[in-house]
């Protein structure tokens, strides 16, 4: 879950990279520089070096020359997200690879990571496309099945959580809370791609817009751990959570997924960890952050493993580094649970500053090479 939430309309534009189009890989013979669009973001401008490009892979070379942290998106006309990069600090540069079909798009910069953003039109022409590597098509199909399985497995766990809430059983509801979120956290980029669902089920109090009603997991989390009571409103909200997550479950199979969106989604999951879990902001009442942390890492690793055969062929050094850093981060997390199969992690309020720093360093060590995965599978 992102640190800030927007309205239902704007949230569509804030969805993650896993809504990337399923375009075929371009084999047009363009030089690498011709497939790159330089994006210069400031607090008041979003300048792009190209307004037109042929279909296929495209890379945004982003530089933030403003004073605010920003985000940059490639958007469909209806604000669905093709690809994105969040948390681009002032004075820093980022690169993101995406796949685009012929059509009209927009590139949006969001200084302060809020609002609809400053936008530039992007026209994608037909190009000369070739069939994609069949291994990548297989990876997309496998990931789609994985995402659907996670949604299917989430609903019974949510039903257990909701039953406890409706029974007024505070302790049973607390026990069922974190397990009910694992499938969502593993596939959060897909879940967020539907824009209108995420603000209903996974928003925090500080992410609400004026007039937006607070619903979902974190509203119930506050009731259980901080307020220590379950009233009629909480029971109604529990039913609403089931309704909203059932909607998500039914729509997972319609998500637009591509190899590069899988890779970008894996990086997005690491960003989720860095901006919410490591800081303790995500589960501020229950302190079950490490459960979410582990689920995010598992989801990122699933995408990576499915793409690994092609990445190994195109960039073996990157694969070696990713294997190393995934293993290191998983080992760090294992220190906070009784065994490698348990999801009963240490309460995050018991994790000291020094240990949080180690976890943060581990996330950063993985995030950097993981940001290169999309380019590796796009070669």
Explain what this protein looks like in three dimensions.
The chain is α+β, with helices and mostly antiparallel strands and 379 residues long. It is built from 13 helices and 9 strands. The strands form 2 sheets. A 5-stranded mixed beta sheet has the order 3-9-8-5-6. α3 (170-177) crosses α7, α7 (217-227) runs antiparallel to α8 (232-251) and α9 runs antiparallel to α10 (289-314). Mean pLDDT is 89; it is low at 3-31.
What topology emerges from the helices and strands here?
Layout: H1 8-13, E1 36-41, E2 46-48, E3 52-54, E4 56-64, E5 70-75, E6 81-88, E7 93-100, E8 103-109, E9 118-125, H2 134-166, H3 170-177, H4 182-186, H5 188-192, H6 198-201, H7 217-227, H8 232-251, H9 259-277, H10 289-314, H11 316-334, H12 353-370, H13 373-378
Parallel strand pairs: 1-4, 3-9
Antiparallel strand pairs: 1-2, 4-7, 5-6, 5-8, 8-9
Helix pairs in contact: 2-3, 2-8, 2-10, 3-7, 7-8, 9-10, 9-12, 10-11, 11-12
- The N- and C-terminal alpha carbons lie at a distance of 31 Å
Mean residue pLDDT: 89
Largest sheet: 5 strands, mixed
Spatial strand arrangement across the major sheet: 3-9-8-5-6
**Any idea what the radius of gyration is?**
20 Å
- Tell me the strand percentage band: 15-25%
- Count of individual helical segments: 13
Fraction in helix: 40-55%
Q: What's the quick description here?
A:
This protein has 379 residues and is an alpha+beta fold. Helix content is 47%, strand content 15%.
């Amino acid at each position: 879950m992102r640190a800030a939430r927007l309205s239902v309309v704007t949230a569509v534009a804030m969805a993650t990279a896993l809504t990337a189009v399923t375009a075929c890989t371009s084999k047009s013979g363009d030089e690498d520089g011709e497939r790159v669009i330089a994006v210069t973001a400031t607090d008041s401008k979003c300048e792009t070096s190209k307004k037109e490009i042929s279909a296929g892979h495209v890379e945004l070379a982003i530089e933030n020359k403003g004073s605010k942290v920003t985000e940059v998106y490639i958007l469909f006309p209806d604000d669905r997200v093709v690809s994105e990069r969040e948390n681009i600090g002032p004075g820093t540069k980022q690169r993101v690879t995406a796949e685009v079909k012929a059509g009209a798009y927009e590139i949006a910069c969001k200084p302060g990571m809020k609002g609809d953003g400053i936008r530039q039109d992007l026209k994608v022409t037909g190009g000369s496309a070739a069939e994609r590597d069949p291994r990548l098509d297989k990876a997309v199909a496998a990931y789609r099945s994985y995402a659907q399985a996670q949604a299917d497995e989430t609903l019974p766990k949510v039903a257990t959580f909701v039953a406890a809430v409706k029974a007024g059983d505070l302790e049973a509801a607390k026990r069922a809370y974190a397990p009910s979120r694992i499938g969502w956290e593993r596939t959060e980029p897909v879940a967020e791609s539907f824009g209108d669902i995420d603000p209903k089920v996974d928003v925090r109090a500080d992410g609400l817009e004026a007039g937006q009603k607070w619903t979902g997991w974190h509203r119930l989390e506050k009731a259980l751990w901080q307020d220590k009571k379950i009233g009629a409103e909480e029971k109604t909200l529990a039913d609403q959570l089931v309704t909203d997550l059932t909607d998500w479950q039914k729509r997972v199979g319609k998500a637009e997924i591509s190899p590069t969106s899988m890779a970008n989604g894996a990086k997005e999951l690491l960003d989720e960890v860095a901006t919410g879990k490591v800081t303790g902001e995500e589960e501020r009442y229950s302190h079950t952050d490490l459960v979410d942390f582990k689920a995010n890492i598992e989801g990122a690793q699933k995408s990576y493993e499915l793409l690994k055969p092609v990445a190994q062929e195109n960039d073996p050094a990157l694969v070696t580094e990713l294997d190393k850093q995934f293993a290191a981060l998983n080992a760090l997390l294992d220190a906070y649970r009784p065994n490698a199969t348990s999801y009963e992690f240490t309460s995050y309020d018991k994790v000291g500053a020094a240990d949080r720093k180690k976890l943060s360093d581990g996330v950063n060590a993985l995030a950097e090479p993981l940001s290169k995965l999309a380019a590796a599978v796009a070669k």
